[in-house]
Amino acid sequence: MDKSKLTTIVVLIVIVILGVFFGYRVFWQSSPVDNQAGSEALQAEADEINPFNQEKPANPFEETTNPYENIKTNPFE
Question: What is the mean pLDDT of the chain?
Answer without folding.
Answer: 78
